[in-house]
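Tutorial, part two.
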Amino acid sequence: MAVRKMEKPNEGIKCVVNTCEYYMNGDHCAAEKISVEPRNAKGSEETDCATFEPKDRTF
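Running the prediction step on this input gives:
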């Protein structure tokens, strides 16, 4: 899923995954939209943010 990275955080989404490309300081998400999967999850422990993209860590 192609997601645009915004310059300002999406204030309605809290994210603490600082290894994600969309992570912003203050535990915010800069993804224009997110997708949470799978469809038939029975609890929060069974869900994942399908929008996650690892940060490019090459130096």
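The beta strands are 5-14, 23-24, 28-31, 36-37, 48-49. In part three we will examine how such features are distributed along the chain.
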